[in-house]
Amino acid sequence: MRARTLPASGLVLSRASSSPLICCQCLHNDISNQIALQSRKYHPTRRKSASPFGAAVSAAQTIFKGLPKAPPGISVDPLRMVGKELKFLTKNIRQLLGSGHPTLDKVAKYYTRSEGKHMRPMLVLLMAQATALTPRKGRSNASSPVPVNDPISAPSILADNNPDLNPLVSSSMEAKYDFVGDENILPGQRRLAEITELIHTASLLHDDVIDNAVTRRSSNSANIQFGNKMAVLAGDFLLGRASVALARLRDPEVTELLATVIANLVEGEFMQLKNTAADEKRPVFTDETISYYLQKTYLKTASLISKSCRAAAILGDSTPEVVESAYSYGRNLGLAFQLVDDMLDYTVTDAELGKPAGADLELGLATAPLLFAWKDSPELGPLVGRKFGQEGDVQRARELVYKCDGVEKTRQLAQEYADKAVAAISDFPDSEAKAGLIQMCEKAMNRRK
Ligand code: FPP
Ligand code: MG
């Protein structure tokens, strides 16, 4: 089978399936190259002028003022950087979700009641700030902010009644944005941050139905609270309103990216329904087992993070190099984040997670810790094949994961991706936002929920 590599993503398109596969060897080489590259980039003698972004940085600094610099090596709290922005995020998201139907209004806003981690919007906002200091392409219309609430079609045609966001008062909404906002974050980037949270929340509403979840963020999950039908429909409603908001950014490239994320999420979820590509009864561990898992992980988790980081840079009119760096950062952080998620399922308690721990094996899922154990313990094959469905399977699988260091090996792989994410933005000029992005990688690695 011949394969074609997509250089920006590290994905390989297989001719036979034309679905994106992450090639194990490419990933391995990629990791080694990046580690070498990273040690060069972080060499203490590196001079600032060595940055390929060079002189354009100072020009950018004159346009985008007010970004404080963090000295190299000093970490900042990313929450502090964008905390003020995030305070308004939930309020704005709830406004986007207003419905004249009182029950739909309630179900759609249900997961916005409790504060989530807001990791995706935080990354978009930090990326917007960090790339504000990098070179711009200089599009002629780049300086005029996009009117993010203005409909494109006539409201009478749209017939989409949102009592919380009346298009006739859109200019006052804009004013609120300007009043609270950091001037280095454009209104379109701020709206993008909200869109990422809408898409993520929609996927959680659907995911909880698929997984028969009972809790989410330490409360009843939406499917338990309102039933499966309403939870699914509310997820659809979120996607609809996210799509409207996306269209109003008036950027086809960004629309293409975020619409593809939605398709990717579904593809990733479909892949997760099977533990291996062949879905045999007695599967044998091969390199493809890991490729399949990483491809699924990219689609399910890293796609939204990587494409929204890319979109943030595009909306900021960044150069192609900066756009690629933002994408690479998001892709690697996204992979690291999901690997840690899969690790935590084996290591923390329900109370810490705010949802049942150990759920993956119960759901029949073979994630990274199990796959590493399977590599050393072929006896896991039949258990994977029957999705740990026989009495004692889950317990036996868990024992083998611990015996074979599956958790530690997962952590190491996650660390490699986190390091690659840091390396991807190493040429960005030093700023608190860049330090915040680096800190997000550390937080992703050290989190307990
Ligand atoms: C959480 O996974 C779920 C996701 C990251 C994506 C789920 C995607 C879908 C259900 C496809 C439909 C998508 C849309 C946009 C409607 P998890 O079950 O591993 O995490 P959890 O433990 O938090 O539930
Ligand atoms: Mg789930």
From TrEMBL:
InterPro entries with a match to the protein in the record: Isoprenoid_synthase_dom_sf (IPR008949), Polyprenyl_synt (IPR000092), Polyprenyl_synt_CS (IPR033749)
GO CC term, one of those recorded: transferase complex
Required cofactor names: Mg(2+)
GO terms under biological process: alcohol biosynthetic process; isoprenoid biosynthetic process; mycotoxin biosynthetic process; ubiquinone biosynthetic process
Database matches in PROSITE patterns: POLYPRENYL_SYNTHASE_2
Residue ranges of the region described as Disordered: 135-159
Key words, A-Z: Isoprene biosynthesis, Magnesium, Metal-binding, Transferase
GO MF: metal ion binding; prenyltransferase activity
Family of this protein: Belongs to the FPP/GGPP synthase family.
Protein name: Coq1 putative hexaprenyl diphosphate synthase
Organism annotation: Aspergillus nanangensis
Gene that encodes it: COQ1
